[in-house]
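Journal club side-thread
Mid-discussion, someone asked how the predicted structure for our own chain would compare to the paper's figures. Pasting it here so we can look after the session.
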Amino acid sequence: MSLYKKRHFLLVGFMSGLLIFALLLSTIVGGTSALDMNSRFDRYVEELFRQEVSANTITLHYTVKDPESYGIQNPPVSCGYAGTDSALICASAENALASLHQFKRNKLSDYNKLTYDILEHSYTSSLEMGPYLLYEEPLTPLAGTQAQLPILLAEYAFSSKSDVSCYLELLSKMESISDTSSHSSSCFFGSFFSVTSFSISEESLFARFDVSICI
C-alpha cells in the first residue's frame, strides 16, 4: 500500500471515528436534555396540582388525606373561584398556555406527552369558552351547586379537630358562592339552605368528635 493510500485510509478512519463520536455525543446531550425536560415538567405538574387542589377546601379535603405530604402547608379555607369575568378567565388561560408551551413536547416521555396534551386541550377550551361564561348553568336540577353541595357537606369526614374548625369556617363562607353565581341565589340560600340557620356550636361539634374517637 502506498503512502498516499495509507494517509487516505487513516484520514477516512479518523473522520469516521469523529463522526461516530459526534453522533454519540449528540445522543448523550439530547438524552440528558430530554431527561431534564421531563424532570422540569414533573415539577411543573406537581406544583400545578398543589395550586389547583388547595384553591378549594372541599376539593382538597376529598382528594388529599395528608396535604403536608404533598407540600401543602396551611392552605386558606376557600370555596374556590367561579367568577364571570371573561377577560380575567381568558388572561389566566393564556398565561397557563404560555407556561405549558415552555416545555418541548417532543422531548417529553409518552406519559408526559399525554399529560401535556390534556392540559393544552383544557387551557385552550377555557380560552375559547371564556367569552361565553354566562351560558353556564351552575344551578341545574340534578348536578347543580344546590344539589351537590349539601351532599358534600353532609359527607365531610372529620379526622381531627382541625377538620372541625375548617368545616365551620367553610360554612361561614358558603354565602360567597351566591355572589359568583350567574343565577339568582334566593332559591338556594333562601328556601333550601341558610348558613345562619345552623344552631350547632363549635364546642358541641368538638364534644361529638371526642365521643366518636372514644367509640
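Post-session note: The longest helix spans residues 3-54.
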